[in-house]
Amino acid sequence: MADTLREIERKYEADAPAAAASLPDLSRVAGVAAVTDEGPYKLDAVYYDTADRRLAAAGITLRRRTGGSDEGWHLKLPVAPGVRDEIRAPLSPDVPRALAALVRARVRRAALVPLVRIRSRRTVSRLLDAQGTLLAEASADRVRADRLGDGGRSARWTEFEVELGSGTDPAFLDTVEKRLRKEGLRPSDAPSKLARALQETGGKKKKKETADHEPATAGDHVLAYIRQQTDAVLAYDTAVRRDAEDSVHQMRVATRRLRSAFRTYGDVLDRRATDPLGAELKWLAEELGADRDREVVTARLKDGLAGLPGTLVLGPVRARLRIHAAGRARGSRKRVLALLDGERYLALLDALAGLLADPPLRKAAAHPAPEVLAGAVLHDYERLAGRVEKALGTGPGPVRDTALHEARKAAKRARYAAEAATPALGKPAKRFASRMKDVQTLLGDHQDSVMTRTALRALAVRAHAAGESTFTLGLLYGREEQCAARDERELPEVWRKASRKRYRAGLRP
């Protein structure tokens, strides 16, 4: 079973290579009451990656380390600058399956091979407060890195780390840094030992996937957005495997943004190449969302029931809702994990990587971004306007519910289009996206009400068949009808505000 620790640390090096080989005195750092010294001890780590360094490109490190108090396998996932989640597993000859699974979306079918061996002689100072609580650990490492293969190059250096203790205010690192700077140390240019080792042992550099220049053409901007959303899918893949809260939903959103971008920006990326990808993204979103509707409906029903006086709750309604919710949870995680390990999903990730490596650009991709992207956003707006007009002109009932749902999907696409164009179009696109979100939110609430009423009717049928009272379920159904009617009354005004000409005029270059 893998264990996870949140690691908050900063790395330093001497201004001059020979200026420092050991930690400076940190006993006078504000808040430090005592400093205890440990070590020295030896650490020996072998870092694993694919031959083309896919993990390193994502800021991920995977190592097998002996020596020290935490020997074993360590997988480090970036969270924010200077913050990583370290997932540990016991020592074993091969990469543990639990850790390999967490990077499968990055690695896919490529082998994880030993890339670099890093040996360190480490001394550690523990910084304690007046109560003896650990504030931080400061360490000095004399490092030797050996490239495994690629000619067997080696490098040596000394580096310093300060790792925050559990529960310590991160601002404490700023206090320590002031002292270190006074002693001639400065923040390291390399984010990790592996990054520095790869650089200093002189191996082949991985070709950058992003341009060195600021995006200028329509193709630059669209590909930057496609790359951003692809990276989001990969990051949320790991989060889903770790069972992080809301990760399945966020991964689904990223797949929808990708599919929407392919459809919106068909003048930039050839749809003959992207339509098959769009179909696979639709499949993935549907699979990830298989339980989402039930989850939304369950939460809505629970909220509705909580708002009723106890005198109006007749029969075993709460038990019915628990059964409904259990139907969602049963086997859900196992099914999702099987999906992420499946060949179809891995093939989709391969195809996305292939598209970014060799994008199917059309003629318009070379044109200035503002004119191309603004035209695409306005085209999606016109599509939305037609659907809203159709929905408003349809009488109440199931047909109108369907029309409003179609308008909701169009509002989402227009919003995503504007968000993708924001780096090129600036504040006008951001404001336009916000207005489209208003429409999407209102219509989303309406659709949630439609789904909830469908669920309530099914629950009522089962309750009636069991001889239970359906009074409360009927009451909740009536309230959902009122919510939907309210949304329909508000739509004309929300749409009037969102469709103001000034929001569209600002998009035009």
Automatic annotation (TrEMBL):
It comes from the Bacteria. InterPro entries: CHAD_dom, CHAD_dom_sf, CYTH-like_dom_sf, CYTH_domain. Residues 182-217 are annotated as: Disordered. This is CYTH and CHAD domain-containing protein. Transmembrane segments: none annotated. Residues 215-500 form the CHAD domain. Residues 5-204 form the CYTH domain. Coiled coil: none annotated. PROSITE patterns: CHAD, CYTH. It comes from Streptomyces roseoverticillatus.
